[in-house]
């Protein structure tokens, strides 16, 4: 419990120290490549906060309509503009991302039964990726396959 509180305080510190003005956008599905607040157009009324921190790392979180954090990217695996990263929202409001810094291939899926987000490695679990997302990875990595992406 103490560790979670520490991480939340650290997140708020980073967010408050970062660039202050974030552009708001609406997204049904597609790629997110820059900081901002992305309102997901679906009945769940969620948004994705993508924030560039003072150290130039990039962090994202999924929030509900009251901006309560439902899922937060690990502070130990933030994105960097110095390496390849890809963040994609599918038509079911699931989030897919790849982070070349950590060879991290993850899907953040909403579980309707538990009403919580669950993170899965889409290569290890063999999830069917959205076509656009998979094509982006294939274009960005020569000889793409999940074996080359997963740890």
Overall description:
The chain is 20% helix and 36% strand. It contains three helices and eleven strands. The strands form two sheets. Strands 1, 3, 4, 5, 6 and 7 form a six-stranded mixed sheet that branches. The mean pLDDT is 84.
SSE inventory with pairings:
Elements: H1 2-17, E1 24-27, E2 30-32, E3 36-40, E4 47-52, E5 57-63, E6 69-72, E7 79-80, E8 85-89, E9 95-99, E10 104-111, E11 116-121, H2 131-140, H3 146-149
Parallel strand pairs: 1-3
Antiparallel strand pairs: 2-8, 3-4, 4-5, 5-6, 5-7, 8-9, 9-10, 10-11
Give a summary of the structure in a few sentences.
With 151 residues, this protein is an alpha+beta fold.
Outline type: globular
CA-based gyration radius: 15 Å
Order of helices and strands: HEEEEEEEEEEEHH
Measured between the Cα atoms of the first and last residue, the distance is 29 Å
Q: How much of the sequence is in beta strands?
A: 35-45%
Low-pLDDT segments: none
Q: Into which percent range does the helicity of residues fall?
A: 10-25%
Total of DSSP H or I helical runs spanning 4+ residues: 3
Mean pLDDT level: 84
Major sheet details: 6 strands, mixed
Oligomer: single chain
Number of strands: 11
Key structural traits:
3 helices, 151 residues, alpha+beta, globular, single chain, 5-stranded antiparallel sheet, 6-stranded mixed sheet
């Amino acid at each position: 419990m103490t560790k979670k509180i520490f991480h939340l305080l650290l997140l708020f510190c980073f967010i408050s120290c970062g660039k202050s003005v974030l552009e708001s956008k609406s997204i049904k599905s597609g790629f997110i490549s820059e900081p901002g607040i992305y309102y997901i157009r679906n009945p769940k009324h969620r948004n994705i906060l993508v924030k560039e921190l003072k150290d130039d790392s990039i962090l994202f979180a999924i929030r509900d309509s009251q901006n309560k954090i439902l899922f937060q990217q690990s502070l130990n695996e933030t994105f960097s503009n110095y390496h390849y990263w890809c963040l994609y929202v599918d038509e079911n409001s699931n989030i897919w991302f790849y982070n070349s810094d950590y060879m991290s291939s993850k899907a953040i899926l909403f579980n309707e039964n538990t009403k919580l987000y669950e993170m899965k490695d889409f290569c290890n679990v063999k999830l069917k990726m959205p076509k656009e997302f998979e094509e982006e990875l294939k274009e960005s990595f020569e000889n793409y396959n999940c074996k080359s992406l997963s740890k």
